[in-house]
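Supplementary notes for students who missed Thursday's class. We covered one full example, reproduced here. Read the sequence, then the structure, then the short commentary at the end.
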Amino acid sequence: MTAYQLTHILDLCRPGGAIDFVLIEPTLIRVPEPPRFFFGNFSDQLSEHYFKMTHIHPMGVFVCQHTTVTAPYLITHDTALLVCPQTNIHQAHLDLILDQGHLDTPKNGRRIDSDCAMIFGPGYKIFGHWLVDFLPKFYLLRRSGYDISQLMFLFPSDLPIFALELLELVGIPCNNIVQFDADTESVLCERLLIPTTCHNGLMFAGLFRDGMAWLRQQIEAHSGSFEQNQSLERIFVSRAHAHAGNRILTNRADIEAMAVADGFVLVYPEEFPLLRQFAVFAGARQIIGEYGSALHSAMFSRAGTVICALRGDGVHPGFAQSGIATALGHHTGYVIGTNVPDSWDFTIEPGHFAAALRCISGGAPLGR
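Structure (token representation):
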């Protein structure tokens, strides 16, 4: 059995070598834009976590010759097991898989001789990761000179149905999708393309705005236009009908009733077809919702849209919504609730939410 050494992918990169990096945008360094407003306890811990995110790695595509993928994002080249922080494949992610013994278990080998792209990574079963981590990678491939309709794309066999629907929306032919069983198979790729992730957990790359414009054009060209329903300009994105296992808003019914009384319409995105979901966000001008995957669909909202995210006072789940806002010209703020002890569930103080509603609905411009 081969003994693999954990190796950072950049340590193996050489121009014209077996692993190369096609640079699209260099490292970005800046202080994150603060939230447009916040109510509740924006603690010292949250502030430190928020403003430390000052560096975004270079944007580009790793081009790896004769490289193997297995279980489901263990990437090996010769005797190196690749750690790829720029693609959100960190050593901690790999350690979780290695503990299951995947590299010690014989696998049935498959081979792909044509160019093959790997856009997935940790979180590939979660809708929000597809929005902020994976879909923007199609744009990086295009910027690197590849026609995404001609590439092969590698995915685990347990890919969620919504992911296959997203691929169809973007225009990826089903014949170009190669799925492998992460438990029993390994795939040798003669030429594997691995685009970077377009954010650092909070801030997004400078190219993200153009990438989203291109992605919307791509979806509309293959799947139909984002028809806008003017009756849904003020929406509250509810998780009441979703299978949300954590980060539950414990007083959701009371908070939603306050929003409805203020003129917001409750929407349940998971009950719409994907194109309709994106169209709802594209048409909305004011959006409130619990922080999570559904709210990230604001990637399709227009510049100037006001977005109010409800979350607990722990570091998790982060502030990627702020990075989306900065990149796309949204006005995003937060109502910070209190986490239930030993849980990510949280409670929003009604008085804090009422203050946020006054801020959103009071007519004072949030723009500069």
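Commentary. The mean pLDDT is 94. The first helix runs from residue 44 to 51. If anything here is unclear, bring it to office hours.
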